[in-house]
Amino acid sequence: MMLSSEPLRTISAAEKAAYAADGAVILRGVLPMAWIERMRVAVERILADPGAASVEYTPEGKSGRYLGDFFVWMRDPDFRAFMAESPLPALAADMMGASHVTFFYDQLLVKEPETAEETPWHQDLPYWPLRGADILSFWVSFDAITQQAGTMAYVRGSHRAGTMYAPKAFGSNTGYAELFARMGLPPLPDMTEYLKSREVLTWDVEPGDVIVHHPLTLHYSPGNATKSVRRRALALRYLGDDAVYDARPGTFVENAKITAILPEPIAYRDGDRLGGANFPAVWPR
Ligand SMILES: O=C(O)CCC(=O)C(=O)O
User: Which of 26, 59, 219, 266 measures 20 to 30 Å from 145, CA to CA?
Assistant: First the structure.
């Protein structure tokens, strides 16, 4: 099924300026509904049969379900089409002013109704073997969601300090604490104190909207406290011209669950560009 690769509109100068200043912006109404409908069907397949690197963040016996799955595009044709053939590569190139765009990975983040598990405050870059200015995430919800259903929250402008903090594991059952300790990064500030002097950006999201966030922006989401609103979201990470491999310790290339699902070994040297079968070129088309 061929769907349009054209965004429904271009990104405005004001939206680009907001992204640069705030580290997060919502692009309203940029994706055609046909893509959303196609992906809703695809998400059900993954929920029924999650991948080898997936994590159930909701402990057994508790209500709801918070599922995370990674590199889903590698095993599902609709996720592959969404990252490569939807309007997203064009939006990534436009947002970063990039002549070439590489796809880094996708991450499915579903919070079913009555899921208590939050996504703790964190930045993305500490997890990733990357550095450079042209790295962004698109956060796409396939459902209309409010804060009660677990929409994202961002500390406005927090990317501009340039500080990387050690992440906290998303769930108590992930076993990643030791990996994160290897990063040797300072811990996050006490967020209750920190947030007293900061502004938090959060948006209700409609299908077709795309949130863009910077890899150093501190972000969080609450659980899904609704009784019946699903929150099926997908984060997609794109790299532009100046993003290169950073051989820092503790990133996800040291996570055997992730490297086991990649078709090629990670054999980059510090400063290399990513590419090949693991990280495909998606722009120009
Ligand atoms: O969907 C969520 O709750 C977390 C998303 C996130 O942390 C990300 O996209 O980087």
Answer: 59
Q: What angle do CA 140, 58, 139 make, to 5 degrees?
A: 10
- Check if 139 has its Cβ closer than 6 Å to any atom of ligand 1: yes
pLDDT tens across 68-111, in order?
999 999 999 999 999 999 999 999 999 999 999 999 999 999 99
Q: Which CATH superfamily is domain 18-262 in?
A: q2cbj1_9rhob like domain (2.60.120.620)
Which residue's CA is the nearest one to ligand 1's atom 9?
Answer: 235
- Average pLDDT on 213-220 reads 98
The domains of the chain are located at 18-262
- Expressed in angstroms and rounded, the spacing between residue 125 Cα and the centre of ligand 1 is 12
End-to-end Cα, the chain, rounded Å: 18
Residue 30 main-chain phi, psi, to 5 deg? -105, -20
Cα of 260 from ligand 1 centre, angstroms: 22
The beta strand positions in the chain, using DSSP E, are 24-27, 55-56, 66-70, 101-111, 119-122, 130-131, 135-141, 153-155, 200-202, 210-213, 219-221, 231-239, 244-245, 281-283
Find out whether the beta carbon of 119 lies less than 6 Å from any atom of ligand 1. Answer: yes
The amino acid sitting at 32 is P
What is d(CA 65, CA 114) in angstroms, rounded to the nearest whole number?
8
Q: Which of 221, 224, 231 to mutate to test the pocket of ligand 1 (most atoms within 8 A of CB)?
A: 221
The sign one gets for the Cα dihedral 76, 78, 80, 83 is negative
Q: What is the mean pLDDT of the chain?
A: 96
In this structure, what DSSP letter does residue 197 have? T
Per-residue model confidence as pLDDT tens digits over 106-153: 999 999 999 999 999 999 999 999 999 999 999 999 999 999 999 999
* 224 Cβ inside 6 Å of ligand 1: no
